[in-house]
Amino acid sequence: MTRFDADTAADRRKLFADAVTAHRERGSAFLTVEVQPPRERVEFGDAPADDDESDDGEEASPPPWIQFAEKTFNLDCTDEELDRLHTLLDDYPEFRIDEREAPEDADGTNVRISARSDANRLAGFIDQAFQAVYDQPEDYRAWIVQI
After folding, report:
1. What value, to the nearest 5°, has the Cα angle with vertex 58 and ends 53 and 60?
2. Alpha-carbon distances of 113 from 10, 47, 61, 67, 116, rounded to whole Å
3. Cα–Cα distance for residue pair 31/68, rounded to 1 Å
4. Which of 45, 56, 66, 92 has its CA 20 to 30 A from that of 28?
C-alpha cells in the first residue's frame, strides 16, 4: 500500500479494500482504521484548540476506530452506537455479532462481529459503520493506522 488516508466515500472504500487485501496477503495480526478527529479552524493570531479537552472543559473522547482480524470486526460502542450498529447489520445479513463484552468499569461495549466476505463488502461496512454508528460526516477522513 502506498497511501494510508482518504476523505471521500469512493476513496475511503478503495483504501479500506486495499487495506483488507494487504492485511490478508501479509497475514498480519489485525488491521486498524481510525477517524481523524475534526479540527477547529485556527484564524491568524488565535491559539490552537487544546486537543485533550472539549469545548465544555471535559476530556475529549478518542476518535472512533475499527479493527479487523481474519474474519472478525472489533469495535467499541456506547449504548446509542450499539443500537445504530444493530440497525446497520440489517443491511449486512451475512455478518453477525459473536461476542459482546461490557466491563463494569467501562462506559461502553466491545463488540466482535463475524464477517466472512470479500474485501469490497468489508470496506463498505467499515465506511457505513463510521457514518451510521459513529455519526461521522460524509467527508470524514479515515486513516489506516496498522496493517
Report:
1. 50
2. 24, 42, 23, 10, 10
3. 5
4. 92
Q: Read off the CATH number of the domain in which 81 is found.
A: 3.30.1360
Domain contains 50: no
Residue 46, in any domain of the structure:
no
What is the DSSP pairing of strand 142-146 with strand 31-35? antiparallel
Secondary structure of residue 42 in the 3-state scheme: coil
At 79, which amino acid appears? D
Per-residue pLDDT of the chain (147 residues; tens, 9 = 90+): 567 889 999 999 999 999 999 999 999 999 999 998 765 433 444 444 444 444 555 566 788 999 999 899 999 999 999 999 999 999 999 999 999 998 888 789 999 999 999 999 999 999 999 999 999 999 999 999 998
* Domain carrying residue 108: 5-36+60-146
User: How many domains are there within the chain?
Assistant: 1
Residues 32 and 141 sit within 8 Å (Cβ to Cβ): no
